[in-house]
């Protein structure tokens, strides 16, 4: 809920399957989505875009120009409002979200491929999409589930200098600063993060190598509001990292071996190594086979190490005749450990002709020290304001382990320049084990769909008209109360003249609403509505 961007600024979306910790560091566990934005020189002139529809309204403006000395810049501003989802009864779920942001980017292309980039952005938003329990306050022992307003604001700046060629060989240095502020009924939290890193890559004989290092420092300040607190209220962390990778070519470049690792040391991840070993074999001009073994870590969060929260309050008599009122109190654990993934992956990419492309991959992910929440000891009798009650302490713990197995296949067919079709499917089987007294074993075991399939096609009806359609089929998620569903989407684009585009979009056409998520404390099911939109874009 803190991040969005102007889609017209995107150059590409890189989806990296599986762990990427050897390059990206801790928390790059199950995959990485890398958003690459266009340089300012590619976003010149004026862009105006506006969207209105049943569930969304948004608008944006961007202006770019060049200056003397090889400089180019752009500035942008956007605003949005997302309408509320629906509850299981069809009522408004009270989770409307709105906000705005503005930013800039300045680039300078120097000699010998050297480039300098400066960018920054500020944002604010607000919503009513968090459900939280009301604090236990004797003599009131009720636990109410209510809508909670959330307000956010923040910003970031980034500076980058690099002298790299198209293959990424050369030197790059980057520094950034980020600040954010969040206020909701249960707590107030302000955070700052500062980062400095560099990477150097080169080539020598059959070796294509790279190495780099970085430091990241974060600090936060929190204030308790209505029963949720972080202990200590102010905290700071630092992370040091060094990474190295070597890509070695064999057999006239038909076989590539990639060996890399990232070493990290922080307050949460103590001197850990995250290696990656990968082999890529060009079996023929049309077929490539690959295999990989990787290790990745997920570092503990501020919540898992320092939370204190009265998660459940039961009135007198709720646990039996004459029983005391009861409180379930969640608490973080300062020595909570990191989660560990060891991943085994194989795949093949096959292009039988210029018009067709087929890709299939399979994986086994072995997880250890996964997090859940469970009781500590037996409930005790406590007192507050002269009122006795039963207190059950629960804490985060590394008590789950398990295996995830799956496969993915994608077939792409482009018979001519006017049309492109994709058919894909993913299967996933998750097997977890751990103590039965926790909250997360059944939840996670039933929160991942067994399958996810799609069919997507784009067809240029004429130079002025383009039609895009897709159908998604997603398996059930029993622990979230989400049944299997099929969702068709359609987009019709019209370009009446140069610089203009008008789009008609419709999504989730199969049903007026379908469930997508269930929130934990209030057990509230959120249903996504059918949406119809009109979007207009003008470039000059």
Can you put this structure into words, describing what you see?
- With 540 residues, the protein is an all-beta fold.
- Helices cover 3% and strands 68% of the residues.
- It contains 3 helices and 30 strands.
- The strands form 3 sheets. The protein has a 22-stranded antiparallel β-barrel.
- It is globular and about 75 Å long.
- It starts with 9 loop residues before the first strand and ends with a strand.
- The mean pLDDT is 90.
Condensed summary:
The chain has three helices and 30 strands. It is an all-beta fold and 540 residues long.
Topology:
Layout: E1 10-17, H1 21-24, E2 31-37, E3 45-53, E4 56-67, E5 71-82, E6 97-109, E7 114-133, E8 145-164, E9 170-184, E10 187-204, E11 207-224, E12 228-230, E13 234-250, E14 255-266, E15 272-282, E16 287-298, H2 302-306, E17 307-314, E18 326-331, E19 339-353, E20 356-375, E21 380-384, E22 387-416, E23 419-433, H3 441-445, E24 451-460, E25 465-474, E26 485-494, E27 500-507, E28 513-519, E29 524-529, E30 531-539
Uncertain spans = none
- Please compute the radius of gyration using only Cα atoms: 26 Å
How many E-type strands? 30
Kindly name the structural category.
mainly beta
List keywords for this structure.
540 residues; mainly beta; 22-stranded antiparallel β-barrel; two-stranded antiparallel sheet; globular
